Amino acid sequence: MEGNSKCDSRGFTLVELLITISIVAILSLLTMQTFKESQRLTSRFLAKSHMIKLQSIQSRHWLSTGAYVSLSHLPDIDASGVLIKEVASTASHYEFKAILTYFDKKSPCSTLIVNASELLPKACWSRF
Fold first, then answer.
1. Which stretches of the chain drop beneath a pLDDT of 70?
2. pTM over 0.85
3. Do 58 and 116 form a contact (C-beta atoms < 8 A)?
4. Most Cβ neighbours (<10 Å): which of 43, 44, 73, 126?
5. What is the pLDDT of residue 43?
6. Residues 6+ apart with CB under 8 A from 3
7. Other CB atoms closer than 10 Å to residue 4's CB: what's the count?
8. Interacting residues of 28 by C-beta distance below 8 A, sequence separation 6+
């Protein structure tokens, strides 16, 4: 009788394949969430760095010419999820706003503001 019930065990069972696929799916989901969060964090630091760079350029321009320049004459940012707008720009005053589009709009750090004298909101800039 034993000779008639030979079992060929050279393959995987359906249950083994399903378990393996489930584990791979869970690991890839966790990896993607971590990757997206790191992209957001990088984009936020790039936005902060760029805003400080704009403030520095404006200060140097003010010292050499006595006037500020508009945002259109300043370098663009190369970061996804960041939109920089000119709130006000005259020869004697400027204010730029960086909107982090991936943040919740109710979050105080979804908008970063820079002008001639300060970086706002202060709590968001202090973690730089």
1. 1-9, 127-128
2. no
3. yes
4. 44
5. 87
6. none
7. 5
8. none
Contacts of 87 (CB under 8 A, 6+ apart): 95, 96, 97, 113
Residues 6+ apart with CB under 8 A from 104: 110
Pairing of strands 111-115, 119-120: antiparallel
Q: DSSP of 45-104, one letter per residue?
A: HHHHHHHHHHHHHHHHHHHHHSS---GGGSPPP--TTEEEEEEEE-SS-EEEEEEETTS-
Q: What's the one-letter identity of residue 106?
A: K
Structure token digits, residue 106: 């109710």
Contacts of 73 (CB under 8 A, 6+ apart): none
| Residue whose C-alpha is closest to residue 87's, from 61, 107, 115, 60 | 115
